[in-house]
């Protein structure tokens, strides 16, 4: 499932960003470009973190930006941004942002399960955080 949801065209790597908000905006660009999401979804992800804190930081250096399913989402998709230098996300250093755009409450569950299984292995996690975007893509898509 991840192979379909996260094509290489949805993966970016840059050195640094000025803010976590900018990181979410940049990470979302492939989904906007290919019509998976609308600009409202990006705004909702940022607003959600502003209101609820850094709940999207699931592990050290790893964040899963998302917002309410269906609101501004045209179809299920993912995009990944890898930063060389960590960005501060409300007190948490983050180098990998994996944007999840879900069109309903259930369609993304399989993808989350796959990501969880990959990241549960410490070697995979280290490669995910420290590897190249090619390494990450290979890890996620097998």
TrEMBL record:
GO terms for cellular component: cytoplasm. Keywords: Cytoplasm, Kinase, Phosphoprotein, Phosphotransferase system, Transferase, Transport. InterPro entries: Ascorbate-PTS_EIIA_comp, PTrfase/Anion_transptr, PTS_EIIA_type-2_dom. One of its GO terms (molecular function) is kinase activity. It holds the Pfam family PTS_EIIA_2. Residues 4-142 form the PTS EIIA type-2 domain. Its main location: cytoplasm. GO terms for biological process: phosphoenolpyruvate-dependent sugar phosphotransferase system. This is Ascorbate-specific PTS system EIIA component.
């Amino acid at each position: 499932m991840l192979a379909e949801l996260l094509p290489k065209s949805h993966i970016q790597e840059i050195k640094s960003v000025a803010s976590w908000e900018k990181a979410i905006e940049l990470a979302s660009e492939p989904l906007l470009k290919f019509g998976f999401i609308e600009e409202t979804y990006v705004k909702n992800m940022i607003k959600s973190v502003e209101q609820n804190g850094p709940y999207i930081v699931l592990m050290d250096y790893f964040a899963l930006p998302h917002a309410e399913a269906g609101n501004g989402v045209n179809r299920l998709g993912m995009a990944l941004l890898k930063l060389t230098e960590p960005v501060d996300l409300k007190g948490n250093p983050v180098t990998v942002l994996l944007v999840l755009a879900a069109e309903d409450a259930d369609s993304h569950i399989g993808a989350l399960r796959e990501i969880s299984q990959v990241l549960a292995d410490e070697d995979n996690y280290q490669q995910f955080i420290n590897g190249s975007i090619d390494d990450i893509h290979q890890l996620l898509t097998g």
